[in-house]
């Protein structure tokens, strides 16, 4: 059994709609009521949520966005390159990993409403990370756009959008 399959089995991960595998490992008991969340959210949200997220070099996490900040934490494997298009249209990227001497960062915050995608750096490998969201994640806050819609919004980023979308 491969290392990747062992991690999937041991952590009981399942396929994620954006690509890769995940398992929710934390959801706070406390909740925030609608009137304290503002117009961006509908219904209640937990204070925070956290998942394991496994990405392999033969896949990618497609461009998506959520309404909350998302904190990425590096655990194991090869580094991840995170591609970000801000809500205003600026492109940037960051390498999330544990080799600080080479400029990798073990933790990174994607700002609320920024579009982002991820890929593992290297062939035949994987990255195990964690993602923490506050207010807590709800699939109602998740947006996975079609390629043409995102390109029409950011035509200057056509190549990177094409590389990291599936539809």
From TrEMBL:
Highest taxon above the source species: Bacteria
Domain DUF985: residue ranges: 5-144
InterPro entries listed in its UniProt record: Cupin_DUF985, RmlC-like_jellyroll, RmlC_Cupin_sf, YML079W-like
Pfam families referenced in this protein's UniProt entry, alphabetically: Cupin_5
Protein name: Cupin domain-containing protein
Annotated organism of origin: Flavivirga aquimarina
Lineage per the UniProt record: Bacteria, Pseudomonadati, Bacteroidota, Flavobacteriia, Flavobacteriales
């Amino acid at each position: 059994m491969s290392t990747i399959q062992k991690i999937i089995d041991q952590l009981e991960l399942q396929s994620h709609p954006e690509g890769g595998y995940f398992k929710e490992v934390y959801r706070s008991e406390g909740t925030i009521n609608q009137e304290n969340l503002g117009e961006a959210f509908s219904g209640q949200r937990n204070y925070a949520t956290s998942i394991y997220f496994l990405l392999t070099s033969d896949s990618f996490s497609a461009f998506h966005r959520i309404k909350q900040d998302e904190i990425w934490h590096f655990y194991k494997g090869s580094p991840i390159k995170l591609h970000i298009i801000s809500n205003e249209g600026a492109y940037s990227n960051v390498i999330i990993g544990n080799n600080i001497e080479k400029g990798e960062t073990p933790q990174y915050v994607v700002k609320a409403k920024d579009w982002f995608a991820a890929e593992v750096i290297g062939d035949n490998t994987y990255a195990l990370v964690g993602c923490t969201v506050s207010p807590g994640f709800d699939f109602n806050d998740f947006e996975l756009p079609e390629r043409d819609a995102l390109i029409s919004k950011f035509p200057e980023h056509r190549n990177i959008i094409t590389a990291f979308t599936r539809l």
